[in-house]
Structure formats: structure tokens, C-alpha cells
Amino acid sequence: MQELPFSKVISFDKAVGSSAQYSVKIEQEHFPRLSESCCSILEPIEANFRFFKDLQGLSTIEGSLKAKVTFVCQRCSKEFVKELNSTFSSTCDEQKAKSLKIDQKLDIVELNDDGTFNLLDFLEDCLLLEIPFITSHDEDDPECIENENGWSFGKIVKSSEDNPFAKLQSLKENLKK
Ligand SMILES: [Zn+2]
């Protein structure tokens, strides 16, 4: 496995203190949750981010991520490529933000009990948030043609199994018997 150019867990304060800044490509294998959430990650994830104190003195991480992944289209069941783009700006200074009454406007990240910050998990979370609720081709994509019988196989069948309402329905039906 490629070594990360940064530690998975870091000291936010130290990173701010040294104005740490990264412009890196991170191998797919470092993002297991993202891998599970899509069909494949096509190339290393581009990450650009830096640590600094903002104008109000809040310790901040700011940056962007780009990942090229594939999903199965829920309309036509074909795989399609999607670029996930995330931009973020978050602070760990919750108390200070609250005292400045700007905590509602800011994205606040939690630190661990020992004051460390799960940097790699944070980056992966940012990308997971960019995954659309329904994964499908764009509306007007000519690639996207529904199956002849108007019903697609594969993922969509699986997702209805996982659907809590479907489960509830089958539970109700079983009770009637
Ligand atoms: Zn499609």
C-alpha cells in the first residue's frame, strides 16, 4: 500500500502551527468506505488542503477533493462515471466559534478525546457526502435507456430489499397469515 503523505490521525493544533499544506494524490485503497459505496474508484483521489488560523483566530482546515468513481445507474442498470467534488472549510474551535456566535455558520469538526483529529476519515466523509441519493445518468443522457420491461435488475432489486418500508410491508403481510 502506498504510504500516505500525512498521518491518518494528526494534531490539529500542530498542523495549524506549522501551516501544513498538502497537494497530493491518495491511492484508492485508503478510502475503503468510499470503495464500498460505489462500483469502483477509477483513479487516485486528488486532495488539496491546508491548515491555518482564520481572521477570527479559529483553527481551520480548508480544501478540496476530487474523485472519479463509477456507479450502477438505477434507471438503466449500466455503469456510469461520476466525478465527486468536495470543497470544505471546517474548524475544530467549537467553543471559540460559539463565543463569537458564528458556530451556526461554520462547519465544526470534532476532535478525539485526546485532542487529535482523524484527518483521513474526515477527508473520506467529505467525499461520501457528495454521493447523490439516487445514482443515475443525467436525465438527458442518451446512454441511459430503460430496460425493455421497464424494470432494471441488479442493484435496484437489492436496494428495495434493504428498504425498511419494504421490510415493514413484508412483516405486516406475514402477520396477516
Ligand atoms: Zn442510466
From TrEMBL:
Q: Its function? A: Plays a role in synthesis, processing and/or stability of 23S rRNA.
Check the record and name the Pfam families matching this protein. Answer: YceD (PF02620)
Species source reads Succinivibrio faecicola
List the InterPro entries hit by this protein, alphabetically. YceD, YceD_bac
Keywords of this entry: Ribosome biogenesis
Signal peptide segment: none
- In Swiss-Prot or TrEMBL terms, this protein is called Large ribosomal RNA subunit accumulation protein YceD
Task: State the family named in the UniProt similarity comment for this chain.
Answer: Belongs to the DUF177 domain family.
